[in-house]
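User: Hi! I'm a student and our assignment asks us to look at how structure tokens line up with a sequence. Could you show me two examples?

Assistant: Happy to help. In each example below, the sequence comes first and the structure tokens follow. Example one:
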Amino acid sequence: MSQPLAHLYALALRALDEHDRRADALRGRLGPVLAAAALAASLLSGPVVGGTHPTSIVGKLALVVAVGGLLTTILRLAEARDRHLAAYEHLAATFTAMLWGILVMLCGLALAAIVG
């Protein structure tokens, strides 16, 4: 294998290892977060769905905190999506440029083999 292709292969393996490490870290954090969210949803769904509207100050405050937390979470997820979208687009453009470079290199090698 030629030196540039070997270098690209090593870079690709490193990128895949890094992606796998990040995915494992995300999976490790995702379980407890989902469990806590399921617990909170199950505890809050009964009074919200089947109960009456909160009349006490504590009940109203809890409702405001819950709705505020939901809106904050939605806004933070949208910001994170936008922030990572640019990185994904940059990664796709870089990968496309690398593929074009490999294609041009292979066409040059084929042309050299035909001429030679």
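Example two works the same way, sequence first and then tokens:
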Amino acid sequence: MVSHTVPTQITQRHDAAPLNIMVLGDSISVGCNNTPLSGWCGDLSAMLNSRGIAHTISAHAISGYSCGALANGFAARFDQIKPNLVIMNCGTNDVPNSQQTRDAMGTSWRIMVEYSHTHGAMVLPIFVQYSNREINDIAGRGWLLPGEGQANDTIYVNWSLYINATPRWFVGLADLQKVPGDLNYLIGGTDGIHPNAFGHSVYASVFYRSMREFYGWPDDVVEPCGLWGHRINVYGPPSYTPCTVMS
């Protein structure tokens, strides 16, 4: 792994309101670029509005981009938005299947985390969702599921470098590995990757719950039902508790 030293000259800003959110993401988050917001950003914004939480949401989200590709324009976009929270939803398009590619992804991820921190923003890191294996195999994307697992491992290794830092760098941790990569949550047909409307609402609920304690928001968004536990083997079945009632 690339050698790493946590910066010592750091600042931290935690503004109660308004919360100025920058979303870093790929095609899963492109709705965060829209006016009005759509996708999970629209759902998250509605949750915050209904609870009187002042906020704005802007994005640096580009379809097909890896964490490394997004890092190239990150600082310039950050300086335009001047966020106090960055949601780091990248990794699906990374394929860190060697030590060299894991190091490259990890370096890009850390550059964005450290830039956020030293410029006054908190970070919400995200473990990416596993997509639908059968559809991706048919579509010739058999590489995708192992790549998602390898990306999550890389995020975990690099996130762990900062979790004991003082002052605190992160508002929580959002785990989309828990969201089933099946057609109840993903667009049907030949897609197998992108959330449907229900999937977007589940994402928003996971993100809200991940940040709720740090910001002191109302504890009135429930854990979406029917989520997976962690996968041990990306091609093996995860632990799963089915919903009694889907809502």
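Here is something you could point out in your write-up. The CA atoms of residues 178 and 228 lie 4 Å apart.
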